[in-house]
Amino acid sequence: MKTAARVARYGLRDVARGRWILVYGIALFGLAQALILLEGDVGRAAAGLVNPVLLITPLVGLLFGALYLYGARDFNRMLLAQPVGRRSLFGGLYAGVALPLLGVELVGLGAPLALAALSHGGAPGVLRLLVVVGALTLSSVALAFLTAVTIRDRAAGMGVAILAWLALTVLYDGLFATISVTLPGSVLETPALVATLLNPIDTARILLLMQFDQAALMGYTGAVFRAFFGSGAGTLVAAASLVGWVIFPLLLAARRFRRADL
Prior knowledge:
The protein is an all-alpha fold and about 260 residues long. It has helices at about 1-15, 20-40, 40-70, 75-80, 85-120, 125-150, 155-180, 185-195, 200-210, 220-225, 225-230, 230-260. It is built from twelve helices and no strands. The radius of gyration is 19 Å and the shape is globular.
């Protein structure tokens, strides 16, 4: 545990020295502040943040997580030459990447929304936005680590990470929209529910849009499952699916890391 904490502290310092983390935080802060000024309402601004944030945060998590682990190979070999366990090393590496991203997102998104909420008397859904975005970041970093420990070539691994993001954000919705046009809606209801829960970005989107405004749900998936995800049981199922997208890729990545030839 102490070893993991030390590796995580080293990762935190390493990430904090990079300018990209500052740029990322400023971009999130500027986006949130701009929507607050345009909408004039914290709730509507938070709802407007859903789609852009769900596109940006997984991409950043996938790309930076993979780049960091590829770049840390020599560092990992050096530590493993010492009496350092692979499990502790992996935990420290993951925390060293995920925690800075979570902190920047909390400050960049949470600070302007919290200040606006204090001025305008509250903002329903802001806490859920931060929690869901945080879970999606943890999931994307776990997927990035799984990619990096599975594919040794950096260029190929980065390509797979970008393709994974495209598949989850663009190709999924396009494919499902095409299928929904050709098949009856009653046939697609159960497969659509399963497919939605198997896509962390779509699950996160539904969780957030149901919190802000049920009428804001767009597309076939949202229309079919509006009643289901609007219930307490549906929310729990979606939340469990999102947590699963954090835990299972992380466990798989940790297992491969312990067995991989670094």
